[in-house]
Model the fold of this input.
Amino acid sequence: MKQYVRTGLGLLLLTLSACVPIEQRTLVLVSSSPMATSPLIATSTPASTPVPPLPSLAVDPQMLQATSTTTPPSPPVATTTPQSTATPFPLSLSAAELAYLDDARDLWLMEVGDSSARRKITTQGNIRSFAWSPDGQTLAYLVNGAVWLYDMQNGQPECLCPGLPDTDLGLRLSWSPQQQYLVLNQGTSMTQKLALIKVATGQIVRELTVLGYVWGPTERNLLIGRRHYLQQQITLESSDTVDLAIVAVDNRSSAPQILLEGSAEVLYHPTAWLATGKIQYSRLDWNEAAQIGEQSWWAASWQHGELGEPERLVIPTSKADVSMRQRIVERLQLRDAAAGTLYWDWSPDHTKLAVEAEAEPGQLYLLAWESNAEPDFLGTGLKPSWRPARED
Done:
């Protein structure tokens, strides 16, 4: 699980509420209606303090509504095939591996435990984003307006999707859990503009603007937060309310199905869609006059196109991410930590942390989390990312 913590309450709450899957927490059912008027048991902040923006899952700028039009935008078409920017060679690294960027934004692989065992994957720099496939066999990266797939078995790069925007505006790549799709995500911490790329064809099958999303178990649908415009805007970051909706992935013409409609007093946000068919979401009850709100978490089944009776979940409040950041700062003896940023990624066995700290180009450290051993300095680099565990 990656964490990106910048000082400030809004992004910290994003880390607490969005980056930790709900199903991994202790859940207790206490109610059967999301409209209950009794005080909420699990809140992100005390009821007497203002609630920051509704937590979200990613990054993107243009605030558009997540609806389909009768004339959907056509995916960009490249007139020429981009040249490979990767070095073709089979990799022999066998131990735990980290991918990272250097200060020229070229992509490297490092064998953890032997920092001299490094391989440079790309040569032209300017990598905007990269992401491991869930099985650890493919490294996707975005460069010069094209998505490339690097095969870890044969060391050969393949251009999957050319003709994409080449911009600095927060572009991020991620994989769907079953590796059927790549998501190109652009925007702010509140609103995400998504392009869904089908890996089998390299085509953009859908473009959406959402306020948070999670994949369905079969990857045929997304559970999304959909902007719902209000005549009189509210003072949260979204300005408008948020509906909970389901949208088909590979069908440009289908409109979102609204499951729960937001209002000026209630906003919804998707958090998980379990293999059992249950969806999980958060609900913010907002008092505009008092500028305070209460947040709660809910679960409901979704079968045959219908949403079942919601059940309220009690999630014990935790300061794990706050104390974790403090512990990292202490272990690395960082200076001016309050003004800095930290980016870290857990190893697949959750025993080690790869940490990027301080100014660019960042300094990379390896921390054995349950040990008091001194941190290992790995060199300079950006955005360390562990290769997922795999069966050899």
User: Anything to note?
Assistant: The two ends are 22 Å apart (CA to CA). Residues 3-81, 87-94 have pLDDT under 50 and may be disordered. Residues 92-126+319-392 form one domain. The longest strand covers residues 292-303.
